[in-house]
Write a structure and sequence with these properties.
The protein has about 400 residues and is mostly helical. Helix content is about 75%, strand content about 5%.
Length: about 400
């Protein structure tokens, strides 16, 4: 079966549009007519055929909707509604890429596949941890309960978004805006003004000479500087996309004073929360560690977790392996150790994740409160220097005349 886009009118002559799952366009028309829709057009849905298709944004939106979708699917199954009918209802409840994904899952389930297997065919929408939890629920016959846990898991995961990047977004915007304003002033405003003033004054004041030097460099070599900057950015992007570059960058970030500590704590909090949710759902600890590694964006932490998984398979202790890696803080290692020894690993990791998340949120807010006034002062000083460089020769020219 395939997904088809359709448009038409209903019994009240109102315009209707949407998608339908069918074997062929004829089958799609028959289904729509049975629903009382007067079909005007039917075409197979092909997301990649659209020229201006923001595919990455569409898939990101679908991933974000999965948490709510899991909660709704859990409620439908708890009410005793069969899985296929529940998926049909869920598809009608949503729109866009997530609706298409649910229809594809429904198609595979109807063909005899399990829900987890159908979800695993769309990793861009359904993450590996969710698929593994659903598989455990299917095998145990507690799919509705597990889906409720998946919904809670996704809700908690959304609370672990990159608070550091969010905190730095406004200061970075200020820096970019200030740099653009300075370049505009020195390339379009200062050159003609200083050219007329040079004819009047025997010597320009030193702030004006500094500004003029920078202005001359930008005017004469601006295109070359822009080209070099673009090449540097592209080269850095390619280097950071490689395994070696990514690992070196992530290691550098973890070693940065202040920021490295926050990044480390945020990563540990995310890992702890994922492992706690998976083990509580019945997933083996080695599998939970592997899935947590796949869900971690920092390659240094990912390597440490994958190494820990291999050493656990060889009979070693998780906490010992994490301590040997040197990536996880001593407090986190201690929580892992005490949790395994006491048999309360899920509870201990939830406490660790909650505590670290609170610490990161507080530190990120303080960082924003500190960086913003510093950036404003720097911008004010730069603008004040340019104003001084412009006003001083005008005042001196007035005194000479």
């Amino acid at each position: 079966m395939a997904v088809y886009n359709y448009s038409g009118t209903d019994r009240t002559s109102g315009t209707v549009r949407g998608t339908v799952l069918a074997d062929s366009p004829r089958h799609a028309r028959d289904q729509l007519r049975a629903q009382g829709v007067i079909v005007q057009s039917v075409a197979e849905h092909r997301a990649t055929d659209q020229r201006w298709d923001w595919r990455w944004l569409r898939l990101r939106s679908a991933r974000q909707q999965w948490g709510l979708g899991a909660h709704e699917l859990s409620m439908l199954l708890t009410a005793g509604i069969p899985l296929l009918e529940s998926l049909d209802t869920l598809a009608k409840q949503h729109r866009g890429a997530f609706r298409t994904a649910i229809l594809k899952v429904r198609d595979r389930v109807e063909a005899g596949a399990g829900l987890a297997a159908a979800m695993s065919e769309q990793p861009e929408v359904f993450d590996a941890a969710s698929v593994r939890l659903v598989e455990v629920g299917e095998n145990a016959g507690t799919l509705d309960q597990v889906l409720a846990e998946v919904a809670e898991f996704k809700l908690q995961l959304s609370a672990f978004k990159d608070k550091i990047s969010t905190a730095l977004m406004y200061p970075v915007f200020l820096a970019c805006f200030g740099l653009a304003a300075a370049i505009f002033l020195m390339t379009w405003v200062l050159p003609p003004l200083l050219e007329s003033l040079q004819e009047t004054l025997p010597q320009l004041p030193w702030p004006t000479r500094v500004a003029k030097g920078l202005s001359d460099v930008l005017v004469q070599y601006g295109l070359w500087l822009a080209l070099v900057s673009v090449l540097v950015v592209i080269s850095l992007r390619f280097w950071l996309s490689s395994a070696v570059g990514q690992r070196a960058w992530h290691r550098f970030v973890l070693r940065l004073p202040g920021v490295g500590t926050l990044v480390r704590k945020q990563g540990v909090a995310r890992v702890a929360m994922i492992i706690a949710s998976l083990t509580r759902g019945g997933v083996l600890l080695t599998t939970a560690v592997h899935l947590a590694a796949k869900s971690t964006s920092n390659s240094v932490m990912r390597d440490a977790l994958l190494t820990a998984e291999q050493e656990m398979s060889a009979g070693q202790d998780l906490a010992t392996s994490l301590e040997r890696s040197g990536v996880f803080p001593p407090l986190a290692v201690r929580f892992f150790s005490v949790g395994q020894e006491s048999g309360k690993l899920e509870e201990m990791l939830q406490k660790l994740a909650s505590d670290y998340n609170t610490q990161v949120s507080t530190a990120a807010a303080r960082m924003t409160a500190l960086v913003e006034p510093i950036m404003i002062l720097i911008l004010a000083a730069a603008v004040g220097f340019l104003l001084l460089a412009t006003i001083l020769p005008i005042l001196e020219a007035g005194n000479v005349s």
